[in-house]
Amino acid sequence: MVFDEVSAALEDYLERIYMLQKEGEGVRVKDLAEDLGVKAPSVTEALTHLKTRGLVSQEKYQGVHLTEEGLKIAREVYDRHCMLTKFFHEVLGVEEKQAEEDACRTEHLLGRATVRKLHKLVKLLEDHKKHDPDFLNGLKG
Hints:
mainly alpha
């Protein structure tokens, strides 16, 4: 899988393309630049790397689209980001904006095995919380 060859910065591009693509059709360079807070030439350079790896396609006037492999990686990064945000915010009680920022930084650092175990932990805690809604209150202080 190409996943291990994709840098954190390129993962961010794939994740953003995925998120923007869910809202509409092809994603424009301008949309990505605005969403990521970078200049259009930076987006163009990143897209060149992603195209070379077969993770995105781009045709004139059609915007950027994730390939099947790009979509697989983007979903994994997005799911990891959502799980970490949820863990930081709902389990640890970190303020939502800070949880989001921390998840964005952390999502690129953790190995797959760690992420799988965190997913299991979050699920286990969610299940336990259904029976005892206050059991995590000791962490939130």
